[in-house]
From TrEMBL:
The keyword Hydrolase applies. InterPro entries: INPP4. PANTHER family: AGAP000124-PA, INOSITOL POLYPHOSPHATE 4-PHOSPHATASE TYPE II. The gene is LOC107703845. The keyword NAD does not apply. Keywords: Hydrolase, Lipid metabolism. This is Type II inositol 3,4-bisphosphate 4-phosphatase-like.
């Protein structure tokens, strides 16, 4: 008969660290032995107990004998030594006796080692704590004189409940689940389940993004080649820029090839954050959900995405992060403008925007023009009018985008870069400094706008105006067609527009006329698009030429940081969407004003972490360039439920597929593919010992600026929300405090000079949850400080929203940090169940961000 021994503490306080240490020490091929030791100080009538679940593959039979041994241990770190261990008593029972007992509960007497005396009692209960994929888990719980207060169980793999349906399991993998039972203020019990999972998007989003980077840079090379013949000076500069793009493409192709080889975990561990080929992958990206079940209340759940701060660790932070490097970059560009025409950042951004508009609208206009001609032959008046309206709208957008002085000036600059260019200054004295121009083969300086004595500066205006004229001719002819159709319908109601056009009446020739006008429109649009494309490519050529030697590396850094940030955002969006599919108020808010994505950062503003924060600020800000769109999946297979990305660096769209039944239940706006906006905001409060140095001797202006700027963004979103979404559809939560009051308090805190003001983080997180936002928590690795923040937030929610008994707050906090999902996260990252803190570091931490004794020790991470 096999025997399993469970050694339990005789103490009111839990010490799960001892459990982990001793289990690791004695676990082997023999029958499972679990030991839990604790201090003798406190009470001999303990409240604490531990739950025990047997692994599915463990050989447990009805005749299996289970032995409970109780030890007392003196305080200190030498508890393993036998001199500090005091055996109190033991008791045994079989699994059959337990399962056949009344109410599935046994009251056992603790006997001394020689079985000569009874020293106490132990109550063993069977508790049903949820279901896992292979069936129900039975929890054997030992209690000494008291009913249990904390229970935990661990489940690795999929959890079969309504939070984990097919669409969840397609994207979120390798779940770890922990379950607790806590007492409320009215002496009732709440059931709390933590679930942490990896996300397929950790790798799939970056790989798609790298492929898009390669595609975009390949197109940019072709655009530069399409500029045509240039003077020797400009041609040499173009060759140099093309060479740089070739270098980026080669490096990205190599990185993508390495990523395609990877198999195994779906996250990048913190110890790999400096790996060059993994620089596009977010660090330690996980989702965490806390589900709370209370008596006579609907279940509540709270989600957070944990991820290492998006930063370019492989490139280092010796010279700062993106925010500082970009500022320095713009200064150096101006100083090297003698080689080229200097365009400020807003103009290069405008050039990219125009290129994007042209690439999107030109094929759209061409397709609508062909559709108009086809509709004129086959359909009645109303479909023709609908197509014409769409064509009119898209053409007006096209013309409006190109009516920009940047396009006109860039066309002139490109003309001046052609071979054989003759400037006005060579034929007459310049009337102003802007008309001065260098020699034909020398660079165009930043203070000069080139002119050509034979170049008509109004030509561009006439070219794009011809587009509008062509459209007006098409509209006029369609109006005549419809008028003729109406007249014929009055005399012969059976006639349709198609009959009028295809008959042998004089109106039949109108089809040919319409065809000619449509072809003219398409040609005009193509000519304008080609000129605009070349001029904007020439602007971007200047940007590349004016960049310093570090320009290439800076672009790669920004690409890598954005990739990490986008992977995290996509993960959070998908999780929030899945959770809100049945919430009409949330869905209305989603398509009306979008969602807030609130990033909480715990980085310090000292040493290397300043650079990380500068990277993170730019990466989060760049997420403004992203929109989401919901599509219908081809099937419910996991491969068809994976989000996909399209676009280029100035704008990306993430498409999130849903199964047919879920997609059809969405509001019309979402099913029609309306772009969905996500507004990223970042709040940072450093909490470690380095932040102490920064606050006393350094500079925290970066943190202050970030918090103030993002508070204003968050406040603006709230105003938009209250003005757009009806009050009855706004929120799906029970408000305990007016959101406006929370915003006011947050605004006061971001301008208050207070050290380690973590209230900023609490308030921002609270506001985010109350407005249906997406929550993210980050530190350097999302492993240690992040774990302290997430567990604190969870226990605070239990206290504030679910009436957790105040006497259990610290106990619950310690329990989650010792045995919850976050210590599992540490184990997954560094193969050690220790948070990477030491005692001196923790002295600088805010009180509730300190882990319990025995759970920390300085470990390389």
């Amino acid at each position: 008969m096999s025997c399993m021994t469970f050694c339990l503490p005789w103490n009111k306080n839990s010490n799960f660290a001892s459990l982990q240490q001793l289990c690791w020490f004695i676990y082997g091929p023999h029958p499972l032995t679990l030991c839990l030791f604790s201090s003798l100080q406190g009470t001999r009538d303990p409240m604490f107990l531990t739950g025990v679940s047997f692994p599915p593959d463990w050989p447990v039979y009805s005749e299996t004998l289970i032995k409970l041994s109780v030890y007392g241990v003196n305080d200190g770190y030498h508890w393993v030594m036998s001199a500090f261990i005091n055996f109190l008593g033991s008791s045994s029972f079989s699994v059959a006796d337990f399962l056949q007992s009344k109410d599935q509960q046994l009251c056992l007497s603790l006997r001394t080692a020689d079985d000569s005396a009874t020293v106490g009692t132990v109550v063993v209960n069977r508790m049903k704590m949820g279901e896992i994929e292979d069936g129900e888990v039975d929890h054997i719980t030992a209690d000494m004189h008291q009913k249990c207060t904390l229970v935990y169980e661990s489940s690795h793999g999929r959890i079969s409940d309504k939070d984990n349906g097919p669409i969840m399991n397609a994207v979120f993998k390798n779940a770890v689940c922990k379950v607790y039972r806590f007492q409320t203020v009215d002496s009732k019990w709440m059931l709390v389940r933590e679930q942490m999972a990896e996300c397929t998007l950790s790798f799939s989003i970056p790989k798609q993004l790298i492929a898009l980077y390669i595609q975009e840079d390949t197109c940019r090379i072709q655009e530069l080649k399409d500029l045509g013949e240039l003077s020797p000076h400009w041609d040499n500069l173009r060759k140099d820029v093309i060479s740089r793009y070739d270098q980026i493409i080669k490096e990205y192709q190599d990185t993508l090839a390495e990523l395609e080889k990877l198999t195994g975990p779906l996250f990048k561990p913190s110890c790999s954050k400096g790996q060059k080929y993994l620089e596009f992958i977010p660090i330690n990206l996980h989702t965490q959900r806390m589900r709370v079940t209370c008596p006579r209340k609907t279940d509540s759940f709270y989600d957070v995405v944990t991820v290492g701060a998006p930063a370019a660790h492989s490139q280092g932070f010796k010279n700062g992060g993106l925010q500082k490097l970009l500022s320095k970059y713009e200064t150096e560009k101006k100083s090297t403008a003698y080689q080229c025409i200097y365009y400020p950042p807003e103009q290069t951004a405008k050039a990219r925007e125009i290129l994007c508009v042209v690439s999107q609208l030109q094929p759209h206009i061409s397709a609508l023009a062909d559709q108009l001609l086809q509709t004129a032959q086959q359909s009645s008046s109303q479909p023709l009018r609908d197509v014409l309206k769409s064509l009119e709208e898209k053409t007006e957008q096209f013309v409006h985008a190109l009516k920009d002085e940047l396009v006109k000036s860039a066309l002139l600059a490109l003309h001046a870069a052609r071979p054989g260019y003759i400037s006005k200054s060579q034929t007459s004295a310049p009337s102003s400094p802007h008309e001065a121009d260098p020699h034909p083969t020398s660079p165009v300086r930043s203070d000069s706008i080139p002119h050509h004595k034979e170049y008509d500066e109004e030509e561009w205006d006439r070219v794009w105006a011809s587009v509008a004229k062509s459209l007006n001719c098409v509209i006029a002819l369609v109006d005549k067609l419809q008028e003729q159709d109406n007249n014929n319908l009055e005399s012969a109601p059976s006639h349709t527009l198609a009959d009028v056009i295809t008959s042998h009446s004089p109106a039949a020739v109108w089809l040919d006329q319409l065809s000619v006008l449509i072809q003219s429109l398409k040609e005009c649009v193509a000519e304008v698009a080609e000129r605009a494309r070349r001029s904007m490519s020439f602007v971007l050529l200047q940007e590349a030429v004016c960049s310093t030697a570090q320009g290439l590396q800076l672009q790669q850094r920004r690409d890598a940081v954005f990739s990490q940030a986008l992977a995290a955002l996509a993960c959070g969006f998908v999780m929030r969407l899945y959770a809100g599919l049945e919430d009409k108020g949330f869905l209305r808010q989603l398509h009306a004003v979008g969602l807030v994505a609130q990033f909480e950062s715990l980085l310090s503003t000292y040493s290397e972490e300043i650079g990380m924060l500068e990277d993170m600020e730019v990466g989060i800000s760049d997420l403004h360039r992203v929109t989401f769109r919901i599509t219908e999946a081809a099937s419910e297979e996991a491969v068809n439920l994976q989000p996909t990305i399209s676009g280029r660096r100035d704008h990306y769209t993430v498409e999130v597929p849903l199964p047919h039944h879920a997609f059809q239940a969405l509001p019309d706006e979402l099913r029609e593919g309306k772009p969905l906006r996500v507004l990223p905001v970042l709040f940072n409060v450093g909490i470690n010992e380095q932040q102490t140095i920064a606050e006393r001797f350094g500079d925290i202006s970066l943190q202050e600026r970030i918090n103030q700027k993002n508070f204003e963004i968050l406040e603006g979103y709230y105003k938009s929300l209250t003005n757009t979404v009806p009050s009855e559809c706004k929120f799906n939560f029970q408000e305990t405090m007016n959101i406006k009051e929370l915003l006011n308090t947050l605004g006061q805190n971001v301008v208050t000079k207070k050290r380690k003001n973590v209230e900023i983080l609490w308030l921002a997180g609270m506001i985010c949850r109350r407005i249906n936002g997406i929550r993210f928590t980050s530190c350097k690795s999302a492993k240690d400080r992040t774990s302290m923040s997430v567990t604190l937030e969870q226990c605070s929610l239990l206290r504030d929203e679910h009436q957790l008994n105040k006497d259990y707050f610290v106990r619950a906090l310690d329990c989650m940090r010792r045995e919850g999902c976050r210590i599992e996260n540490v184990q997954k990252n560094i193969k050690c169940r220790k948070y990477a803190f030491n005692m001196l570091q923790l002295m600088a931490f805010p009180k509730y961000y300190r882990p319990p004794e025995g759970t920390y020790g300085k470990v390389d991470s």
